[in-house]
Write a structure and sequence with these properties.
By secondary structure, this protein is of the alpha/beta class. It contains 16 helices and 14 strands.
């Protein structure tokens, strides 16, 4: 039997101009860009940290290219459970971007939904946001990161962000790897183009929000998310077979002939894989199971309150010299002039800007994820 050929493109992206050229070429050649169609742009905006989210330049150049082709653009994402979506959009500049170009910005966690049969093993009949169903195409803009539960998150995992809160909880309770496969199989018939952000990537433990970031200056393009994730693992030195949802797709991967068109021109340095203990994964899943059973009684999810209490958070140590930099940079005014942290203001944001800017390391990270300093563009 002849093997299916799937193309995956790797491009070097050292500047905004590089990003612009790559995006325009990809949209023109790899997707249906007929004027008048509706395209949902789906970046990865899990939390308000630039190293953990899709580069704002990639989002903007994608939006501009689509609008130039007279395409109706929706910008949609559902940030992580424990983060305030409005603050995430505001801090990352996505809210300003949507207003600048006059396009709708949709919190997919709260969008109106319709029930669809997808025939998966975990996701059988689910509710999907109406903008997902009604869009003629999805432009998937994932961020390459290691992930404490799934190994990595990139093209396939990013689409889980299309699900509303209750469906996402269900996926974590009944099997996140199979849920990722189910959703991608359902969307395979839709016009999906992926332009993956590996400009900065996240590696090691702490992902997908609080891992260590590395500069790699690469964009990964294609129309088959399984092939894209397999190639990305190969590029960054991560055994794809250790990624649960890719392992479930092993027979499909072995049936493919993946044609990698590498325009980067050099060998890419590998990144460290996430290492989560069995107890960590068990505890994390137990939180979701508990929430799945109990949240109907409270008519809301308890995950944000649990994770923000136990997870990554900041404290000001006695080393503080009261320079005022943390007070000035905090986007939610959580640090008073007396250098006390208002936990309730900070808990659903946790952007760590105070920690990043502190010149003497007086801001300390507490909780189970302790990231290193973030790589930023200059």
């Amino acid at each position: 039997m002849q093997r299916k050929i799937k193309k995956v493109f790797l491009f070097r992206a050292n500047s905004r101009e590089d990003i612009r050229k790559i995006v325009n070429q990809a949209i023109s050649k790899l997707m249906n860009s007929k004027p008048g169609i509706q395209v949902l742009v789906k970046p990865s905006l899990v939390c308000p940290r630039t190293g953990a989210t899709t580069d704002i330049r990639l989002i903007e150049e994608t939006v501009k290219c689509l609008l130039d082709k007279n395409i109706y653009v929706l910008l949609g994402e559902g940030p992580g459970f424990e983060f305030d979506a409005d603050k995430v959009f505001e801090i990352l500049g996505v809210k300003d971007l949507s207003q600048k170009y006059g396009i709708p910005l949709i919190n997919l966690r709260k969008a109106k939904t319709t029930t669809v049969e997808i025939g998966g093993k975990v996701l059988k009949k689910i509710r999907l946001p109406i903008p997902v169903i009604e869009s003629d195409a999805i432009l998937n803009l994932p961020k390459f990161k290691t992930h404490m539960l799934t190994g990595i998150t990139f093209a396939m995992k990013n689409l889980i962000g299309l699900l509303p809160d209750d469906e996402r909880r269900k996926a974590h309770v009944f099997g996140i790897h199979q849920a990722i496969v189910d959703l991608n199989n359902f969307l395979a018939d839709k016009n999906v183009l992926t332009i993956g952000d590996a400009i900065t990537v996240m590696g090691g433990s702490g992902g997908p929000a609080f891992g260590e970031t590395f500069q790699r200056n690469i964009l990964v393009l294609g129309q088959d998310n399984v092939a894209i994730d397999k190639v990305a693992c190969d590029v960054f030195g991560i055994p794809w077979i250790k990624v649960g949802y890719l392992n479930l797709m092993r027979r499909y991967i072995e049936s493919l002939k993946i044609d990698v068109i590498d325009k980067t021109g050099e060998v890419v340095e590998p990144i460290p894989l996430a290492s989560a203990s069995f107890l960590y994964k068990l505890a994390y899943r137990s939180v979701y199971i508990f929430d799945y059973l109990v949240s109907p009684l409270f008519k809301k999810s308890l995950i944000p309150r649990i994770i923000t209490r136990l997870g990554t958070r900041v404290e000001i140590s006695t080393k503080c010299n009261k320079c005022g930099m943390c007070v000035e940079i905090c986007p939610v005014g959580a640090i008073s002039k007396d250098y006390e942290i208002n936990f309730e203001r900070c808990r659903y944001v946790r952007c760590l800007k105070c920690w990043e800017v502190c010149p003497i390391g007086a801001i300390e990270i507490k909780g189970f994820s302790k990231p290193k300093r973030e790589v930023r563009w200059t």
